[in-house]
């Protein structure tokens, strides 16, 4: 009997989670683009949003990286600005991870910068998101949001040819620094999603 009751509870939980509104689409920002998925919870007042995509950082012509982020958002207002559709103002915390491009500088023994530039590397950070979305009376959703990331970027090591002794190249070890490109999240991003 306990097994049957447990199976019913698990099935009911799965069905209720599946029945919650979801949305999937594309998020485009100043540094790249991402696949975007939302899953709504708790009487449509909270939602989990996950994104994964290509990130160029500041250098659109540079080597692209990949970045994923997840935020848990709370809808704190439903303005009645139009007769049709629905509006929502939301905000929430999250995390971001990726292999992305960022500013890196190597310093010499005297403390002066010897070489600097954009370098790919591992990134881990926390983020905060605030946004405004509009859901049409048909299954389309548009939103604009800000999502800055504060975190750590660990660059790859960098190798430079030595013109005097080619067999002994200059090797600059990987550097850990503040993830500068995370501040690009202060520029608004636009999302278009199919809601189902």
Topology readout:
Elements: H1 2-19, E1 22-29, E2 32-41, E3 46-55, E4 65-77, E5 86-107, E6 113-135, E7 140-146, E8 149-155, E9 158-160, E10 170-172, E11 176-178, E12 189-195
Explain how this protein is built.
The chain has 196 residues and is mainly β. Helix content is 9%, strand content 59%. It contains one helix and twelve strands; from the N terminus they run αββββββββββββ. It has one helix spanning 2-19, and strands at 22-29, 32-41, 46-55, 65-77, 86-107, 113-135, 140-146, 149-155, 158-160, 170-172, 176-178, 189-195. It has an eight-stranded antiparallel barrel. The longest helix has 18 residues, at 2-19. The protein is elongated, with a radius of gyration of 22 Å. The two termini are 36 Å apart. The model has no long low-confidence stretch (mean pLDDT 87).
Write a concise keyword list for the protein shown above.
8-stranded antiparallel beta barrel, mainly beta, 196 residues, two-stranded antiparallel sheet, 9% helix, single chain
